[in-house]
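[Primary structure, fold]
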Amino acid sequence: MPDRQPSMETLEARARRRESRRDFFTHVAGAAAIGATALAASAQAQTSPSPTPTATFTEADVLNFALNLEYLEANFYSFAATGAALAAADTGGNVGTAGAATGGRAVSFQDPLVAQYAREIAADELAHVRFLRSQFSDTTRAAQPAIDLSVSPTSAFSVAARAAGLIQAGQSFDPYASDENFLLGAFIFEDVGVTAYKGAAPLISNKVFVEAAAGILAVEAYHAAIIRSVLYRKGLATPSLRLIEATTAISDARDTLDGKTATTDAVRGIAAEDDQGIAPTTTSDGTVSNIVPLNENGIAYSRTAGQTLNIVYLNAAAVSSGGFFPAGVNGNIKTSAASA
């Protein structure tokens, strides 16, 4: 959103800008169907508005999938804010192979605002982990899988940064080295978390979990807006850091991973090449920021479970492990989409 007064002229400029954005494409979210009767759904991205389901997942499957993503985010922020991974009491389970989150460390924050945000988000993500874990019995809860949060040249962060052109072959990207690097690492996770929760929204039928999922989605969106806003402000204040350009590069790299679908549907806000950085856009009405990545209808976009796994596995193919989850996620929803 623009940095100054929210005038009607500014809002109209935003609407005109959105009308010129890329078409949005529909897909059927493949996370699973949530409901008392375990609705059928596909875990892979689909190219038809009415696909034939390829797998049937239960409510527990879907919640365990979300729990895997929360383990990833919570550990990253816990490392950055405190220097430690999640405690064992918050990671155990009997579904899947238990693993450790490794390679992270505390950030020596220079900006007290960023430090406060890191601590707040760490607490929020831990609360999400504990809430989701509380929905299971000891025998049905997914264990935390192995999570790579390290900084070597072959680490997930470095592979992602290299794909975005932020570093060269053989170099490392360290999200704990500075406030700015931390924000870029957070930018990867928060945007993906928002789109993953929104992608599952149309398939949720259990009213209790509709409200709970909407609540988690709202928190993830607040987090994403904080990260995007701070990156934008720092990018404007110190252009030499090229933070705004870095977000565009990361979003473009994510777009190459999560593939295309066949049918446009701007009303649902679901797209193929939909990811957006924070680069401002110049229109006939002036320059406007892009803190909130929306389509022409002002609707945020979505990803399927398969597309989400494409990004966290850092692979455009249909695979069951890689990237931030070197041994894969735990549970029945674990294969990424075969991107077109």
Notes: The helical segments are 8-19, 59-82, 112-133, 156-163, 179-200, 207-237, 243-258, 305-313. Confidence is low (pLDDT under 50) at residues 1-54. The first strand starts at residue 25 and ends at 26.
